[in-house]
Specification:
2 domains, two-stranded antiparallel ribbon, globular, AA_transpt_TM
Length: 453
């Protein structure tokens, strides 16, 4: 389809999906929230009360604007159903490859993180007999259940699960706040209004960048914009979904982040449940058990949502004529199409020395590109194409100043976010004080292990 034909295409797709804008907004929010809520206090602590909220507002605003740009392009090309499809229409085959690499690459590399988070939650609830305390064994147990989620197939079918995930996020928030008021933190280091109290300038900068990183991957609407709007009754209403999800994300940072940091101070853990010196996170306590039950449910749904577009992409690539029925043969076939991505996630979850390090680099190399940089580049091209077409038709309608400013701001936030996320990923390996422990294997088949003395 050439650009002229695209303009004549109806802006509202017919009979594509049945999802409403509220459900779509909840899905966008819950896509990353179960993992993000654990780290929100850490983001506020390292950027400061005002600094952390400012970063959240800036990144969330740029993410909403970037996703809205994708939506505008999607409405111009309603036949596009994937991230890469938009790139193909706007900038050709190279942009399609670029879009698929950064979007699907993120999905593929986040799946082992979600598996690990689920396993850690299961272990924190209580050890299971012969499995002992080896996290890898819990990864294998939870993986068998996660494999079945590939049969969800579309976001339309996932609506009930996203409601469950949203309830789990609320449960995590409530238990975290109850724990903050019931338990003290010893020792507690007061947080600052801006920045953090680290004495070493390099360490202080890396800590500040970690607050930026968490803000970047806590809210990632562009990852789902094209696919999710395709499932909606009225795709144009996805703008409301973005505003709803963005508001929930800001509320999460403002309420949870500031209250928990005010109670427990700057020195909270990167994941709240590993905060040392807080009795709430001792195994066996009611708060710890409840929090990890909710965390397990939320991250399980996150894994499922992650696998939906990835599995569908594999099926369309390898079997474009797949009938997509619920007969036993088709269920087995679809399971086969999704199996390679599942096995790669299981392999990485087991043999990656540090999931935190993997998540840091996946965030830096994909998240700012998908949420801000790629949408800004595509939208800028669309604006120029529209202006050129108007001139050919005898109309003088240059690109508006507000459009130029919006594109520039979104692109700038994306570039700064990429630099900050990269700084955090590299800095957490360079500084001994920040480097996480590394381990491959468990007792009896330990392959490699490193930790600070």
């Amino acid at each position: 389809m050439d650009p002229g034909e695209a303009q004549d295409t109806p802006l509202v797709q017919q009979d594509e999906g049945h999802m409403g804008w509220k459900q779509a907004g909840i899905t966008v929010f819950t896509f990353a929230a179960p993992s993000a809520v654990m780290a929100v206090p850490f983001a506020i602590a390292n950027a400061g009360y005002a600094g952390g909220i400012a970063l959240c507002l800036i990144i969330t605003g740029a993410s909403v604007a970037g996703a809205n740009m994708l939506l505008e392009i999607k409405l111009l090309y309603p036949h596009c159903k994937t991230f890469g499809d938009l790139g193909l229409q706007v900038l050709g085959r190279p942009a399609q490859i670029w879009g698929n690499v950064i979007q699907l690459g993120n999905f593929c590399l986040f799946m082992p993180c979600a598996l690990r988070f689920c396993a850690l939650s299961l272990l924190s609830i209580g050890t299971i007999g012969p499995l002992g305390s080896c996290v890898d064994y819990y990864v294998w147990v939870i993986a068998a259940i996660c494999l079945l989620t590939t049969q969800v197939r579309s976001f339309d079918n996932a609506q009930g699960f996203t409601v469950i995930s949203f309830c789990c996020v609320i449960g995590m928030v409530v238990t975290m706040l109850i724990g903050a008021f019931q338990y003290e933190h010893d020792p507690k280091i007061p947080a600052q209004f801006f920045g953090n109290p680290e004495a070493d300038p390099g360490l202080r900068l890396i800590r500040l960048a970690s607050g930026f990183t968490i803000g970047a991957w806590a809210f990632i609407p562009a990852f789902l914009t094209v696919e999710l709007s395709t499932c909606m009754r009225t795709p144009a209403e996805f703008k409301k979904s973005l505003l709803l999800a963005g508001s929930l994300n800001v509320g999460l940072f403002v309420v949870v982040g500031t209250i928990v940091v005010a109670r427990w101070g700057y020195n909270v853990g990167e994941v709240i449940a590993i905060t040392a010196g807080v009795g709430a996170w001792v195994p066996g306590t009611t708060i710890n058990t409840a929090f990890n039950v909710f965390q397990l449910g939320g991250n399980f749904v996150s894994y499922m949502l992650d696998s939906v577009p990835l599995s569908r992409f594999c099926q369309k690539s390898w079997a474009p004529n797949f009938k997509d029925t619920w007969t036993l043969p088709d269920i087995c076939r679809y399971l086969g199409y999704s199996l390679p991505t599942f096995l790669s996630a299981l392999f990485l979850s087991t043999f990656t020395p540090s999931i935190n390090t993997l998540l840091d680099f996946v965030t830096a190399l994909t998240t700012p590109w998908v949420t801000q940089i790629y949408p800004a580049v595509l939208y800028w091209k669309v604006l120029h194409r529209r202006a050129a077409e108007n001139i050919e038709c005898g109309l003088e309608e240059p690109i508006k100043r507000s459009e130029k400013i919006t594109v520039a701001l979104v692109l700038t936030v994306g570039c700064v976010s990429f630099c900050a996320c990269s700084l955090k990923a590299i800095g957490y390996l360079a500084f001994d004080e920040l480097r996480p422990p590394f381990q491959i294997g468990c007792d009896g088949w330990l392959i490699w292990k490193w930790s600070r003395a």
